Amino acid sequence: MQGYHSPQLDVEVRLNTNESPEPPPEEFREALSAAARSIDWHRYPDRSAMKLRTRIGELHGVGPEQVFAANGSNEALQTLLLAYGGAGRTAAVFEPTYALHSHLSRITGTAVATGDRGPDLSLDLDEVKRVVAAHRAEVTFLCSPNNPSGVVDDPAAVSDVLELVGGIGGLLCVDEAYGQFSEHSTMTLLGHDVPLVVSRTYSKTWAMAGARLGYLIGPCWLVGELEKVVLPYHLDAMTQIAGTLALDYVDVMEQRVQRLVAERERLVVEMSSMAVKVWPSGANFVLFRPEGIAGGLVWQRLVDRSVLVRNCASWPRLEGCLRVTIGTPKEDDRFLAALREVLT
Ligand SMILES: *Cc1c(COP(=O)(O)O)cnc(C)c1O
Q1: Are residues 173 and 33 in the same domain?
Q2: Is the CB of 177 inside a 6 Å radius of any atom of ligand 1?
């Protein structure tokens, strides 16, 4: 099998992995340094990560027993598949979407049932019905805003999918890694007897990809099952503290998200006057396809100008497509100038 790869090249403008272009606030870093000095390094960390889960729960109006935190939301999703996937079970995905959902399924021995999104890459309910009926997957994945398209799923459609999935005794997992960039969240559908989990990460909106922290919110019976299969003490003391302290700066995060959304709209306008097809995005990146020139060639010529974007050629149906992460206005200007040059 192939591993999961996103090239880490040494360039001046890195717009390929949807990180925040700005670091978290200085006050956060000071508070974290001070807190790090009082860690009991000779002791195991709090195995249940209670403080962190309580604070995350407060953010979403749920108790800590509904929060499962892990080393990145990818680990939370992997744990979900260790508990609910595995040999003889199936996970459903709707392509094109985040590659880790099918990748994590395969490495946990879970079969993958693949459906297609519609022509505009939005959810196609007839296709979801077909896949659910044909495969009766134990876990169905959605991603909204979707990576790499930026498409935000219609809340009514997500609600219909949840009903379909619940009807066959399955579980719906909605990956909201970019949730704060969008106006809709599936969190409103969560409930104790609802087979739904929603995952979030610190890597994007919280500007903390370096910390490796993510979580999912779900019914407490489900979170209890995840705790049975995850490695003991999987979340180290430093990560727990970093994740807790970060939540003191919600306003700063929200302002940063607003700046990135404004910047995203600027990019979309600028790019719409170039020879590229641009998809509307509800996230911190934009998917586009250069016209009359191979995407791979554009990717290389941008790298030659020290601008790195994501080549989406390996995704089904995204031949020739590239994805650019929203950076600082300066970085985005570099990208726009380089793209203009490459396309003329
Ligand atoms: C970036 C991303 C994640 C984040 O994974 P972490 O392990 O939390 O860094 C999860 N889901 C999607 C769709 C992403 O794009």
Answers
A1: yes
A2: yes
Cβ–ligand 1 distance for 208 under 6 Å, the answer no
What's the CATH code of the domain at 333?
3.90.1150.10
Ligand 1 contact, 214 CB (< 6 A): yes
Both 89 and 146 in a single domain?
Answer: yes
Whole-structure pTM value:
0.97
3-state secondary structure of 198: strand
Pocket test for ligand 1, best of 4, 19, 100, 208 (most atoms within 8 A of CB): 100
Cross-strand pairs, 180: none
Same domain (yes/no): 221, 324: no
Same domain? For 30 and 19 the reply is: no
Domain count within the chain: 2
Question: Is ligand 1 within 6 A of the CB of residue 143?
Answer: yes
**Which of 224, 249, 274 corresponds to the end of one domain?**
249
The radius of gyration computed from the CA coordinates of the chain, to the nearest angstrom, equals 20
Measured in Å, residue 121 CA sits from the centre of ligand 1 at 19
Q: What pLDDT tens digit does each residue of the chain (344 aa) get?
A: 888 777 788 999 999 999 999 999 999 999 999 999 999 999 999 999 999 999 999 999 999 999 999 999 999 999 999 999 999 999 999 999 999 999 999 999 999 999 999 999 999 999 999 999 999 999 999 999 999 999 999 999 999 999 999 999 999 999 999 999 999 999 999 999 999 999 999 999 999 999 999 999 999 999 999 999 999 999 999 999 999 999 999 999 999 999 999 999 999 999 999 999 999 999 999 999 999 999 999 999 999 999 999 999 989 899 999 999 999 999 999 999 999 999 99
Distance 177 CA to ligand 1 centre (A): 5
The whole-angstrom separation of Cα 43 and Cα 167 is 46
Burial class (CB in 10 A: 0-12, 13-18, 19+), 78: buried
- CA-based nearest residue to 227, from 332, 82, 93: 82
